[in-house]
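Reopening this one. Same input as before:
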Amino acid sequence: MKKCSVFFLLPVIFLTGCTQQSKLETAPSNALFCKNISENVQTIQHLHLSEEKPDEPQSVPAVAADTPYGMWFTAMDYAEILSGKTESEFQAAMQERFQNAKSMGINTVFVQVRAFADAYYPSEYYAAGLFMSENGSYDPLQIMLTEAHAQGLSFHAWINPLRCQTDAQMEQMSEQYPVKQWYLDTEKNGNWIVKCEERWWLNPAYPEVRQFIANGVTELVTNYDVDGIQIDDYFYPTTEASFDATAFQASGADNLSVWRKEQCNALVQEMYQAVKTADSSVLFGISPQGTLSGNERQCADVETWCSTAGYCDYILPQLYFGLQNTSAPFADMAALWAEKTTCPDVSLWIGICTYKLGQEDPWAGDGVTEWQTDPHIPSKEMALLLSMEQVEGIAIYDYASTFAPEDAMQDVLAEERQQMQALLLDN
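Same output, byte for byte:
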């Protein structure tokens, strides 16, 4: 999700005014564009789960957290806990993970159910997820949703609307799915679906594509008692004009960046309306990159989404920056987003990370070694956010890096979990 250009809350807030954008505008984006996600995802460790068969999940109604404290669960986890696993094994894995998160004070989970135009649930529109091809006998989403609700956790289905698969994966996809049909269509290939480096992307410039994505959202909200739908920071994957040259030329527009923002805005609005039409109580949230400049490169019009009703219920920027980051210091970035989130219908939640602990941060300037020398950055940032009246929710990226880090970081993360637990449970 989050560590490349690619790839985890509700009272409303009342803010006034926006300050002039400062040097923070020049901060680097959270990540590079169009990089293979496998290069940027935390390595998943074995959890050594019990082999005892858990009780069968029971249907439990949706829940909502007054003050959301969230955690992201990525689709890359499924390589470990879903691929080749029986229903009871998968259920046990998710049960343990949700229990761990809850024990820390987490009350909301963002679970990735669609990462690459593939679905971890039975779908009319999307092929089966990459890690569940052998597991067609059960529904992973329903199991996760039931387990989360049984533990009183609010469940937000996290999807990536535009990002698709590689050529090899597309070749294996059944032709019953629209994405594959467009891939094979000589007119739509290169227009409705476009290749950027090794991966294919849906092009939001076409109304038919946006409607397809909205239909997928409707399917989720209609068929499952989710508490929210969340999209993250995968918008336009490149600044190259060739990505959507045909559509741009046909539009008659003269400014590519402005026009692309309009397409993103139309997509976001249509997804929001799809959610509210299906179930007005379900939240729609956006988790964009942490810097304004990063969002500008992706043509993600975050300032409009933060200040105007009808785009989202909450905005959850990924502030994966240290306290000493030169161009994007955490405290300043949190304040900047608080200034930008002026619509009373939009709540500001902020994402922090644990995956950087023990690592060098090459984007951080003077703070390049900060995550190596200070093991308590996440808890310090959490404490700061809890003190900010404008911030109405916090989320941690992600479960694997927090509860199953690499061996060298086990003790560090154990201590930091305790620190964050104390903050959340005492708040």
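So the earlier flakiness isn't reproducible anymore. For the record, The radius of gyration is 20 Å.
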